[in-house]
Amino acid sequence: MARPSAESQRPGRPTTPTHTRRSDALLSAVRSAGRVVFVSHVNPDPDSLGSMAGLAHMTRTALGTPAILTQDGVIGRAENRSMIETLGLDLVPTSQVQCRPDDAVVMVDSQPGTGRHTCAFAARPTVVVDHHITPGKLDGVAVTDIRPELGACCTMVTQYLSEQRMIPPKALATALFYGIETEVSGYPREATPADDDALSHLYPLADHDALARIRNAPLPARHLEALSLALTTAVTCDKLLFAWVNPLRQPDQAAEVVDFLIRTEGIEWAICGGVCGDKVILSARAAMANANAGELLRQVVGNLGTAGGHHRRAGGAVAIPPGTDSHLLRDELYARVRREFHLSGPTVPFLSGL
């Protein structure tokens, strides 16, 4: 059932020349801007939130340039909302941002042209800082730092701050620490020595009471509703578990569900699909290293939508054409999963084996 990784030896895209520090290249690219606008992927997670906050702190401190942290889409996961409230992150919805000619747009934890944004200015960033294996459209981007070998974008930002000899304030250190922690969690860990070095650097600077509040945020009833629907609909085939949630109240609930399901004994892959508005949201997890989940989910989605991610974690979205029965789309996606995994065995309702 375990799939070899076709990307495990793939180098990252070209980054800033080695004779120039990456943080200096970013600052140089936005130095003449009247304002720096930070944007990430739709429904930002802790890694993207911490990364935007860290780079905003760096540009404000080094250049004195005003900075805006944007929010594209909703933030529904309880821990993510608690992170924003507890650490006082000031986010402006992208729909309320009017970009000016002298603005510099910095995209973090994502890349343009991937279908993971709803705002027009995300299509033309000045700088892109990311750690995903994603076929982004980077032509015309002044500075790119794409390092898929790292576990978290917050690790890259922590390195930037260290290069500039900036010690992050407690709230920012907490955001960066939690961003890395959430990205490399699970087993096997997707952490490199650089990620662990960043965690060690941030640990004494972080607010651990705040971290405890964030990690243990109260769960809304809709979280339990999604889990209940997933358990009811889940099926298994060999070491794959596939669940369907309709309706999915918030897009990031698919990730919450699959984070829980991948811990099922005997399961190597868990995929959750859910109907959220006019889209199917997909989230995949693997229980082994170098599983190449991002590429696998891209193959499953194909021309139906967009997908990407890491070796063990991936996400995607498929637009539901008007008048289409979502159950037919579910069946098509599951059939594609079976083909991609070369599964020919029977499909068994998950709860029937209990």
Map the helices and strands:
Layout (H helix, E strand, L loop, with lengths): L21 H9 L4 E5 L6 H18 L3 E5 L6 H10 L3 E3 L9 E6 L18 E4 L12 E4 L6 H11 L6 H15 L8 H10 L5 H8 L5 H13 L1 E3 L2 E6 L7 H9 L7 E8 L2 E8 L6 H9 L3 E5 L3 E7 L6 H16 L6 E2 L5
Parallel strand pairs: 1-2, 1-4, 2-3, 4-5, 5-6, 8-9
Antiparallel strand pairs: 7-8, 7-13, 9-10, 10-12, 11-12
Q: Label the CATH architecture of the largest domain.
A: Alpha-Beta Complex
Which percent range fits the helix content? 25-40%
Number of domains: 2
Helix-strand makeup class: alpha/beta
- Number of H/I helices: 11
Largest sheet: 7 strands, mixed
Essential attributes:
single chain, 354 residues, alpha/beta, inorganic pyrophosphatase (n-terminal core), Diaminopimelate Epimerase, Chain A, domain 1, 7-stranded mixed sheet, 6-stranded parallel sheet, 11 helices, 36% helix
